[in-house]
Amino acid sequence: xxxxxxxxxxHLLKPLSAAICATRRLSSDTxxxxxxxxxxxxxxxxxxxxxxxxxxxxxxxxKDMAEMRRMEIAADSLYxxxxxxxxxxxxxxxxxxxxxxxxxxxxKDCIITAYRDHCxxxxxxxxxxxxxxxxxGRKNGCSKGKGGSxxxxxKESGFYGGHGIVGAQVPLGIGLAFAQKYSKEEHVTxxxxxxxxxxxxxxxxxxxxAALWDLPAILVCENNHCKIYTFFFFIRYTIRGRLVAGxxxxxxxxxxxxxxxx
Length: 262
Prior knowledge:
Elements: H1 6-22, E1 30-34, E2 40-42, E3 50-54, H2 55-80, H3 95-102, E4 110-112, H4 118-123, H5 128-135, H6 169-182, E5 189-194, H7 201-212, E6 217-222, E7 226-227, E8 230-231, E9 246-248, H8 256-261
Parallel strand pairs: 4-5, 5-6
Antiparallel strand pairs: 1-3, 2-9, 7-8
């Protein structure tokens, strides 16, 4: 079955487009937003709870997140209809992570993630047509239809893909950061992983190398309380030495939390 380009995308986003067009002209005046829950930090000062933004910027964030959510809902329907084969890991509820990161970085910075990669691809400038083509195994997909749900890719925008092996993308991200430092680039790499990968040995090895070589890497744990499809209960454990400096961000906070901390 051929994939209809504009017709399919317009049908999926029609309610969203109508809602956005109906929105009144918003002000670009600066407003201050304060988070409801304070940050906690380890070996660093916690970031400020306030951030400056505008109604226009907030609406842009909302539109982008709504588009991501509708794409994932459509992907879910296509998967259940068996038009998407193999695995299909969705990003529902995590859209603010992608949008908040993109608000604070540039396309020269690198992002590498696990298998929930559809929305991060959109955030890096990817399109809906490329996304659905890839999901359905078409040659016009972002990975020529050969990667599927777990292997979106957009090198020209600094997106080095989704990866299917739990935690395997973190050492690769440290490698990207090493290349940035070796090339004397003024950029940074974001290596993203879920709570299900938090006990992987390769994660700690990658952290150790990043610290020893002082690499421009930021590791982002997206704690969605899921380990693939099974609910994951966090088990407390200890390791030798000092914990890595970082900040704890409550998952359901506003999109500006990530924007602010970066």
